[in-house]
Specification:
Blueprint lengths: L10 H8 L10 H5 L2 H4 L3 H15 L2 H13 L8 H23 L5 E3 L3 H12 L4 H20 L3 H5 L4 H21 L10 E4 L3 E4 L5 H18 L5 H15 L22 H9 L4 H30 L11 H18 L4 E3 L3 H6 L5 H13 L4 H5 L3 H16 L10 H16 L3 H18 L8 H15 L2
Antiparallel strand pairs: 1-4, 2-3
Helix pairs in contact: 4-17, 5-6, 5-7, 6-15, 6-17, 8-13, 8-14, 8-15, 10-19, 10-20, 10-21, 11-12, 11-19, 12-19, 20-21, 21-22
């Protein structure tokens, strides 16, 4: 329900009319700045909501460094995991703080799942792009987002891409993430559920391997938490699996719980060094990388904000979302700041719905989550000891959750089903989000034309398809 303070006599009357329990108004500075009275909330509720959102999202503090470090470790000597924890925590804190103080929404942001996998496995490992150059591409994407948000062009771009391709992209990224979790090498502590096979390309791994058994146990534990709808299920699943591995001596336990973090000197500002190398890259390769970062972040943010806005009652009957450009700006600033600190694209998290469900309605709950993200960097010794087999189940479950987007595709329409299927299947099989996206955007306008519906495709979509065809032709 959308609240209009001009038409409601008091918050209590409004709450009664909507069937909610009225909350006694507060008059302190925080309540006034965040409009607690108009939103029928209070300080206690907002603090609880912020803590709930943080707990639900905290798995990213382990998973994101784990994914990014796999790429950076191969190009750099030394242990950068702790620096990646700092980059993850601080970029999430900055973006979420902007969301809370500027946009005044109870939504939290952090480096996005899927985009971190694309950064590490597709751009750095598969294409062989230096990680500094990849950070520069993320930085450029953030600057583009800031410009598009200021000029209000971001919302217009959203209308260009067919809905089925948006949903297929989310589902394809889900499969890609799950595949990464399933195929992690046991030599580095990964699950090893799927392994390379010269005869069949891939096959089931060695189920007697301790790491693989722990990953299976972790998947069952996490699934149980999800089934019981326990808040923070992914985080608790990671912790439970890690603790079990420590008890069974399959992985070494942490040497400490809290430590003063060292300065992230090997990551901070490396995006600027990468900018100097960007101009030396193949222009089509550079545009392809930036476009995927841009596209996935754009539609992931739009879809997430829309879903959260509906759940929290911010979107009215006309579909209007007040201050949405401010929410977009939080995403853009977070991405730009995150690249400078050394992490992949920052985006709004659907897990923010957990805080909204606890009654969070103002930006103060986002401020609380931001503070907790900043404090989390003190726990690097503990986070560093969490083995890869403990995070693999979280990746698989995230894939399950993202696959839900496929239900929005009209599978009885070939113009939607064929491009969507190609998008979803090619992403994990080619180990590239960009290739899957390209397949969908090329085939969609063609099949629409085969149906005699050329007029239903926008000229901008044909331009995108032509650019992807040209990219493939020049490989």
């Amino acid at each position: 329900m959308t609240r209009d303070p001009e038409n409601a006599s008091t918050p209590e009357d409004e709450a009664i009319a909507s069937g909610e329990e009225a909350i006694a108004p507060e008059t302190h500075a925080i309540a006034q700045y965040f409009n607690f009275a108009e939103l029928n909330t209070n300080l206690r509720t907002e603090i609880l909501a912020g803590i709930t959102t943080f707990v639900t999202m905290a798995y990213i503090l382990v998973v994101n460094p784990g994914i990014l470090s796999e790429a950076i470790f191969l190009q750099e000597s030394g242990d950068l995991f702790s620096e990646l924890v700092i980059a993850t925590g601080l970029s999430a804190a900055i973006a979420t703080l902007v969301m809370g103080l500027y946009a005044k929404y109870p939504f939290a942001l952090a480096p996005g799942m899927g985009l971190n996998a694309y950064f590490a496995f597709a751009v750095v490992l598969t294409l062989g792009i230096d990680w500094r150059v990849a950070l520069a591409a993320v930085f450029i994407e953030g600057i583009i987002f800031i410009i598009l948000t200021i000029t209000n062009l971001r919302a217009k771009i959203v209308t260009l891409i067919p809905d089925c391709i948006k949903h297929a992209t989310a589902a394809g990224i889900g499969l890609f993430i799950a595949y990464i979790g399933l195929s992690g090498s046991t030599e580095t502590g990964g699950a090893g559920l799927i392994v390379a096979n010269p005869a069949t390309t891939t096959s089931l791994g060695d189920l007697s391997n301790p790491n693989t058994l722990m990953a299976i146990a972790g998947l069952l534990i996490t699934s149980a938490f999800i089934a019981r709808r326990i808040k923070g299920a992914l985080l608790w699943g990671i912790l439970a699996t890690a603790i079990l591995g420590w008890i069974l001596q399959i992985a070494p336990p942490p040497q400490g719980l809290i430590g003063i973090p060292a300065a992230p000197v090997h990551l901070f500002g490396q995006a600027f060094l990468g900018l100097g190398e960007v101009l030396k890259m193949n222009i089509w390769q550079l545009l392809s990388i930036i476009f995927v970062f841009f596209f996935v972040d754009l539609f992931d943010t739009v879809g997430t904000l829309t879903g959260l806005g509906i759940k929290a009652g911010y979107i009215n009957e006309k579909g209007e979302f007040p201050r949405v450009n401010r929410a977009f700006m939080a995403d853009a600033v977070g991405t730009t700041a995150g690249a400078v600190m050394g992490t992949s694209t920052v985006t709004t998290y659907i897990e923010s719905a957990s805080g909204v469900s606890e009654g969070g309605r103002s930006g103060f709950s986002a401020v609380v989550a931001a503070i907790l993200f900043a404090l989390s960097i003190l726990f690097i010794p503990f986070l560093q000891a969490i083995p890869a087999f403990a995070t693999a189940p979280a990746l698989i479950i995230v894939g399950v959750l993202m696959m839900g987007s496929a239900a929005q595709i009209r599978w009885d329409d070939p113009a939607e089903s064929i491009p969507s299927f190609l998008t979803i299947s090619i992403m994990p099989l080619s180990f590239s989000i960009a290739e899957g996206l390209a397949a969908g955007l090329i085939t969609y306008p063609l099949i629409k034309t085969f149906q005699g519906k050329f007029h239903e495709t926008k000229i901008g979509l044909w331009i995108l398809a032509a650019l992807f065809v040209l990219k493939f032709a020049m490989r």
